[in-house]
Amino acid sequence: MILNIYVLIALGVLLPKGGTADAHNRKYVVCYQGTWATYRQSNGKYDVNYIDPFLCTHLVYTFFGIEESGELRVIDPTLDLEENGGHGNIRKFNALKLQNPTLKTIAAVGGWNEGSRNFSIVANDPERRQRFVRSAVQFIQRHGFNGLDLDWEYPNQRHDLTFDDKNNFVTLLRELKEGFKPFQYLLTAAVGASPATASISYNITEISKYLDIINVMAYDIHGAWDPATGINAPFYASKNDITEGSRQLNLDAIIKYWLAQGAPREKLVVGVPFYGRTFTLADAAQHSVGSSSLGPGTAGQYSLEPGSIGYNELCERMRTEQWQVEWDEVQLAPYAYMGQQWVSFDNPRSIGLKAQYAKDNNLGGVMVWSLESDDFRGICGGEKYPLLQTINRILFDGRTATGLTQSVLNMAAESIQRPVAPGYAVAPVVGSHTPQQGIVLDPRDGGVCTSQDNGYVRDKHDCGKFYYCNQGMAHSFNCPHNLKFDLESTTCNYPQSVDC
């Protein structure tokens, strides 16, 4: 399908009214994808082609690693890259922007399995920090991402080093931001949520200066590591939370803490889980929140991790198994039990309440972990992505994050037969299965959109990167790997054919 941006703008669905968006009103839907789900079996298998690029404002590719030297590391070359017969997952992921011109893609470095030690070593050394900045810039340029997400879990924790991670993290973010500035790359982070964790790891006021989006992981509050059952991502404190510390372990208290410590409201994004935490009850007859647990509950049939189960896995099971579902009126979350199995999870109702909270409190939006755990096939209720769709309906008043949908694209495709406005040229992007079209005016020098700019502008630093300008707002694009944006033909073309 060919995307006619001129038609989309005429329909009033591509950009906010006036071509700009107030930072305090803009809402993000940040979607992490666990790329390893491509190896899952049957209905759990999740590839890039299952991603709906219109339900997220930012897509985050997880994960890449960090070497002790400061180099960024590709963890699964066969999946991620195209060399040596690889699957080319990164290229496919970034090609989703050819369907949705407002979508941003971000490369995530870190994660729980990557650990904390290498981050600490790199952040403590000026030479290693600069090597990491250079490596990150080169990686983003090569693969066509829009930015980097740091998922260091966690500064000053999970290692035996004596470095000052809290301040070194600030320095690392500042140097990354400086290195990204010429290219306007985004810098985001997934952060430990609770006051107990955050106070050890972060100078919140300082890190907020350099981060464009702060993804607060307000989940894993309770799990099989606890001696009793608990809600994975509670909204408010429960009657069992009698200590000051335990009363801070809920979404409302977490967000209030981050705001009080200096996090800008518009950068703070509420993290919600698309998975549940499972327990094995000590006594099947005692199944309320806070009941004694023997340890992890059954694993999801696709994710195969004891103590955890995706929403898609759980809702499938509930169709054939006799689970009893309850609603915690205080913590505003569901839980369920069957025999000695007990699970705390989020459903459309609880997810909707959290999205409404983000909206009512003028927060940046909602982050989801992670796409492959939603009911992406629509097996349970007929609607694909019921959790993600709920977030979109609430944050955007019944529309998607950009107003774009498949039906709008179909309208655009049908309109291609109509004459294009005088003075404009329409041309496809070479080297993609999904060509892209749009308004093309005489390119401006400098690569910066002014309020008068309308059309495509090539980046002055990177010939493989270009922008679509509309009344001062820039939407960035990257040509497929090894192609350059040709100002004469207004296509992504082979380097030898481009004057760059």
TrEMBL record:
Any one Gene Ontology BP term: chitin catabolic process
Domain GH18: 27-398
EC number: 3.2.1.14
Cleavable signal peptide: 1-21
Domain of life: Eukaryota
GO MF: chitin binding; endochitinase activity
Catalysed reaction equations from the record: Random endo-hydrolysis of N-acetyl-beta-D-glucosaminide (1->4)-beta-linkages in chitin and chitodextrins
One Gene Ontology term, aspect cellular component: extracellular region
InterPro entries named in the record: Chitin-bd_dom, Chitin-bd_dom_sf, Chitinase_II/V-like_cat, Chitinase_insertion_sf, GH, Glyco_hydro18_cat, Glyco_hydro_18_chit_AS, Glycosyl_Hydrlase_18
Keyword annotations of the record: Carbohydrate metabolism, Chitin degradation, Chitin-binding, Disulfide bond, Glycosidase, Hydrolase, Polysaccharide degradation, Signal
One Pfam family of this chain: CBM_14
Enzyme class: hydrolase
Domain Chitin-binding type-2 intervals: 446-500
Protein family (similarity comment): Belongs to the glycosyl hydrolase 18 family. Chitinase class II subfamily.
The protein's name: chitinase
